[in-house]
Amino acid sequence: MNILLLNHYAGHPSLGMEYRPYYLAREWVRLGHRVQIVAASHSHVRTHQPAPGDQLLDGIRYRWLPTPAYQGNGFGRAWNIFRFLWPLWRDARALVDEFRPDVVIASSTYPMDIWVARRIARLAQATLVFEVHDLWPLSPIELSGMSPKHPFMLLCQAAESSAYRHADRVVSMLPVVHDYMASRGLDLKRLAIVPNGITLDEWQGTPAPLREDVAAAIALQRAAGRTVVGYAGSMGLPNALDVLLDAAKRLRGEPIALMLVGDGLERERLVQRIAEEGLTNVQWLPPIPKAQVPSLLALIDIAYIGWQRVPIYRFGIAPNKLMDYMMASLPVLHSVAAGNDPVAESGCGFTVAPQSPQEVADGLKRLAAVPPAERRAMGERGRAFVMAHHTYPVLAERFLQAVRR
């Protein structure tokens, strides 16, 4: 098949997140399909921004549409979205004539790309797929406190309703969405669940060497006899890293060191907090390439992931970094209340209440006190869980089965 995937934030291991479009597309190419990804040239989640134009990466055709740079979630980001969607709408016929898609996937985090994808799919007489990362507008309303009557939220609501009415298939990364989507008008016969996962080749062979400053920082903590707790990933409000810093205050004097590796909209403020509050048991380090993540995780003792306490997570969670933690055979402290919990399901660590610095601090102390052999057994249970349910060859085929159905 010819598969056209529209994802504003699509990335590549050489550029940064989002990785899911790349991993799915690579598996589809290996199965003999042709894949064209269309993405914006500027995205806040990427480490490096590509030049506008066409590029062939690992057999996948990328088209980077020129979009302006932006910071934060204000007008600049909205203008960036418009500058991505408008050329797609305007040049839909040319794209269809050039690529002749059999499947058109609308896959950006926000739902407005469904209108463009539907136009392209109708011109091509192709199957239209709406892939759900997060529930918009519900996510920004419940996570960021945006008003349901805000014009942007009303636009998202109209787009989501259109997607559930018109998409031939809906693929959700979130596992507990059935009642919500049915209430929005979706015939559940058109729904398939395809969660996030990992790619096996990143965990086979010798991993890329870890950047020296990161390796040295961890070695220093180990030499001091401290248990190293790691967080690797985006630094935004949904990640509840303020709770982890509040927990760090309660862990002063404990032989536990917290290492934060990554970047994001909240990074500068969090680094400032670490300095101003004298959190000497916390260290921030700049982001590392995706290929170095296995080397990083091999050096830490415990992985941490946290969430805000918000109703939106009743529909489930699908975090990429948790899959990496589990694949690295790490015991995990999970601070969450959600419709699903892979840590509890697999037995690979402890789960504590979200937005509770005391519970996070107590959980880290309790997990650090577990004998190393038992922690290793926890980590192995997590890895076995991922291998059974969350590898991209399995997920890519499940996605195609949904399309064919």
UniProtKB/TrEMBL annotation:
<dbReference type="InterPro" id="IPR028098">
    <property type="entry name" value="Glyco_trans_4-like_N"/>
</dbReference>
<protein>
    <submittedName>
        <fullName>Glycosyltransferase family 4 protein</fullName>
    </submittedName>
</protein>
<dbReference type="Pfam" id="PF13579">
    <property type="entry name" value="Glyco_trans_4_4"/>
</dbReference>
<dbReference type="Pfam" id="PF13692">
    <property type="entry name" value="Glyco_trans_1_4"/>
</dbReference>
<feature type="domain" description="Glycosyltransferase subfamily 4-like N-terminal">
    <location>
        <begin position="16"/>
        <end position="197"/>
    </location>
</feature>
